[in-house]
Write a structure and sequence with these properties.
The protein is mainly alpha-helical. The protein has one domain: Ribosomal protein S17 (Diphtheria Toxin Repressor, domain 2), CATH 1.10.60.20. Helices cover 64% and strands 0% of the residues. The chain contains 3 helices and no strands. Helix 2 packs across helix 3. The longest helix has 17 residues.
């Protein structure tokens, strides 16, 4: 889908650092976790952040 904007990456990395236990490799569960952990006003941004987090977990590229 292309390169993610830096604000998506920043939100995703912060969420993974502080709430890692909430996220899994399932996109739908991550959407709910992003909605509960943040106050992102738009569905589009929430879905992009959830997708970024899911991709990081599935590829194993997230490191503490």
């Amino acid at each position: 889908m292309g390169i993610k904007p830096t604000y998506i990456k920043k939100i995703g990395i912060e969420l993974l650092e502080f709430h890692e236990e909430k996220f899994t490799n399932d996109f739908d569960e991550n959407k709910k976790a992003v909605a509960s952990a943040t106050n992102v006003p738009s569905k589009r941004v929430r879905n992009r952040v959830a997708g970024y987090i899911t991709r990081k977990i599935n590829t194993g590229k997230f490191k503490k």
